[in-house]
Amino acid sequence: MSDYENDPAHGHPTLGRTPKPTLKTISKISGLAVPTVSRALNDAPDIGSDTKKLIRKIADEIGYVPNRAGVRLRTGRTNVISLVMSTEHDNHTARLISSVAGGFEGTSFHLNVMPYSPNADIMKPIRYIYETGSADAVILNQIEPEDARIAYLMERNFPFATHGRSNWSDQHPYYDFDNETYGRLAIDMLHARGRKHVAVVAPPLRQSYALHLVAGLRERAAATGLSLSILESVTSDDQTPDVAEGIAAHLTTAPDTDAIVTASAASALAAFATAESRGVTIGKEMDIFAKEASPVLKIVCKDILTIAEEVGSAGEFLAKAAIQAIKQPELPPMQFLEIPTAGPA
Prior knowledge:
Layout: H1 23-30, H2 34-41, H3 49-62, H4 68-75, E1 80-86, H5 91-103, E2 110-116, H6 123-132, E3 137-140, H7 148-155, E4 160-163, E5 174-177, H8 179-192, E6 197-201, H9 208-224, E7 227-230, H10 240-253, E8 259-262, H11 265-277, E9 287-292, H12 297-300, E10 305-308, H13 311-327, E11 335-338
Parallel strand pairs: 1-2, 1-3, 3-4, 4-5, 5-11, 6-7, 6-8, 8-9, 9-10
Helix pairs in contact: 1-2, 5-13, 6-7, 8-9, 10-11
């Protein structure tokens, strides 16, 4: 135990406070020089992994928190990476935030989540981060083909990574799920099960992954002869009651619908609730095909057809990609496309 832990003067208004742990404190405990401690905490490549683990372990145990102003003066960095996301949170979003945060474990970087309203100017948080220098990089999702945020950051050589692909994805870091392949798999599975009339609750069609999904669906629907209806009244980003209402309206006008493909677990639950309210048995009169970040749908209904999306892997990858974009911008951007290969569980 250090000489300042359990100090009777801690927090006392007269006797004063326990001294704040510093690099010198860690140096004294570890027996390593202050510059070595500093470089280990900043993930310097010339410091061994065992030394880094030891220094970080000591830092965590004694509650060391780096002085952000000092770090910025010494390095020009904040050691903060901002995850800029819409306030429309669901289980997918929560897992992405958690996995990105996990990707920073063992590094000198910290996560800041900057939310914005779906109806707000999506450029506002990006301009704020760049103009104030409040982060060293940003991570973005809900990517559009010619995303204004990406264009802005690329023009200014500001580090970033994206969950999804833009039209310029060959030039920037990204992690993406292959929604086009997902769409193909959905139609092929439904065709094999004898379905003929498929309704789709797609993401907003301004987003890249929605366009990829619809392309895959349409390609295989044309090849197999299935009819395909993309719901126009709702998207998978809408609130669950609104999605349920939109599906109900579609089933009223298209009663021969025997399958529903969704882009989220929440919209799949809306489809299930709507079908159940009409006395339709999933797996018999109708199929629901969905992708999900965690195995929730099978608990609700074992006959919902699902494909897993590895959001945990996405977050960890994006964290590493953003760090590389900061520290080694001369390297090719880190990129990964997750391709679903197995059939639904």
